[in-house]
Amino acid sequence: MLKLKYPPFSKSKSLKKILIFTLFFWGSTSSFSAQYTEIINSNQPGFSESPYSVGTGIYQFENNFFLRSISLKPDFPSAQYGGVDLQFRTSFLLEKLELNAHLNYQQDRVALEKIYNTGFGSMTVGAKYLVYQPKYTDKTKEIRSWRKRGAFDKKRLLPSVGVSLGMNADFSNKISGATSITPKVGILLQHNLTQNFNIVNNFYYNNIGSDFSEFSHIVTATQSFYNRYSIFFENKTVFEKNQNNINLGLGLAYLYHKDLQINTSGRFLFEGKAQGFYASFGFSYRIDRHQDTYKDLDINGVKPKNKLGFSKRFLRIFKNKNKGLKTKENKKNNFLGIFGKKKKETEVEKLEREIKELEKEMKKEEKKKERQKSNN
Prior knowledge:
It is a single chain. The protein contains four helices and twelve strands. By secondary structure, it is of the alpha+beta class. The protein has two domains: about 10-290, Porin; about 315-375, no CATH class. It has a twelve-stranded antiparallel beta barrel. Strand 11 and strand 12 (about 275-290) form a beta hairpin. The longest helix has 29 residues, at about 345-375. The radius of gyration is 27 Å and the shape is extended. It starts with 10 loop residues before the first helix and ends with a helix. Pfam families: Phenol_MetA_deg (PF13557).
C-alpha cells in the first residue's frame, strides 16, 4: 500500500495563500509575444494544462474516451466508470487570453450491484491568461564558440506563468455530489528546459466554498522526439479533508497532422485504501483561422506619427465605422468566422480566377459546337 506523506488539507489557510499568489502573478510583468503555433498545442492526454493560449482565430476540440476501475481490496468487486471528456478552447479577444469549456459525460457501475448511473459528471467553464513568458537567448546566432552555442541557457530556469479562473456546474445527478455552482482557481507554470523537454506544474483550488473543496497539484514531464512523437509522465495529487488521492500516469501522443493529434495513456490510482487503474484514448483537432497582426514601423523601429490634420482625421472616423459595419455583415454570414475565408482576394488571384472562368466558358462553347456538328 502506498503511504502518503502529505498532511490533510486545510481549507481556510490555503485559500488565502492561493488568492494572494493569484493576485501577485496577475499584477506582474508580462511579455508581448504571440501564443499561436504552426502546429496544434494540446493538453491531452495529461490532466495538466500549459499557461499558453491557443491563439486568436483558433477553435480547438480535445476529446478523450476513458475507462476507470477502482477497488478497496484485490478480492473485492470493483466500481467501474466509463465515459468521454470533451474540451473546447478558443481565443478571440487577446492572444494571451484563452476561453475554454470542459464537459465530462460518464456511466458508473456501483460495486456489488448491477446498478448504472449515467449522466454529466462535471462541467467547467473558465479562462486562463498568460502573465509572464521569459525570453531565451537565440543560440543559432552564436558562431564563434561551440561551447557557448551548446551551453545551457539559465533563463530557461524561469517558468512561464499563467493564471486560470473557472466555474464548476453540477447537473444534480447521482454521479456528482458537489453544490450547484462553485468557483475554481489555479496557477499554471511551465519550464521549457530545452526545445524538446518541458515540465508543467499546476496548483488548483477546486469547489471553493463547498463541502467538497479540494486542493490539487499536478506535475507533468514531457519529452518530444522526431517532431512527431511525445511521451509524458505525470503525477496528480488531490488533497482532501479525510484522505489524499494520488494518480500516476504515463502516455504517448502522435502528431498525425499539423491540426490533428492522437493520444493514449494509462494510470495507476491510489485513493486512500482503494487502488485501481485508468486508461484513455483520444484525439485533438483544431480549426485554424488565425491571422497575424502587423505594425508599421520606421527605420528605427518606432511607430510613425499620424501627420493628418484634424479635419481629415475626423472624416477618417466615419470611414472606419463604415468598414466596421461591412465586416459585421460578413461575420453574420459565417458562424464566428469559422467557415469564412482567411484572406482577401488579391489582384493576382482575381486575374487567375477570371482566366479560369473564361477557359471554362470556352470549353463549354467548344462542346456545344461539337454536339451541333454530330447532330448535323
